[in-house]
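agent: user wants the structure for YXWGXW repeat-containing protein from Burkholderia gladioli. delegating to structure tool.
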Amino acid sequence: MTRLFHPARLAAALCLTLATSAFAQAVIVAPIAPPPPRVEVVPAPRTGYVWDHGRWRWDHGGYVWVPGHWQPVRVGYHWVPGHWVAHGPNWHWVPGHWA
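agent: tool returned. relaying C-alpha cells verbatim.
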C-alpha cells in the first residue's frame, strides 16, 4: 500500500509553499497618476549608503509623500529607484531594488 501523504513529501511541499510566499509582494495599483515629485534637498554623500529619493505612496484613496532616506550599499549592485508606471487607466508601483 502506498502512503498518500509521505511525511518527507509533505514537509518538502510545506517548505516550498512558505519559501515562495515569503518573496511575494503586494501589487500597488492607483487609479490616477501621482503628483509631480517634490523637490528634496539631497544630503551630502554618506560612505556606505546611497540616497533613495522621496516618492508618492498610494494610501487609502490618495497619495501621501514619503521622504527620501538612505539605503545601505550592497557591494556589486546598484540601486534602481522605485517608480510609477502607467498601465492603461491605472498606475502600478514598481518598488526600488538592487540590481
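agent: one observation worth passing along. The beta strands are 29-30, 49-52, 55-59, 62-66, 69-72, 79-80, 83-87, 90-94, 97-98.
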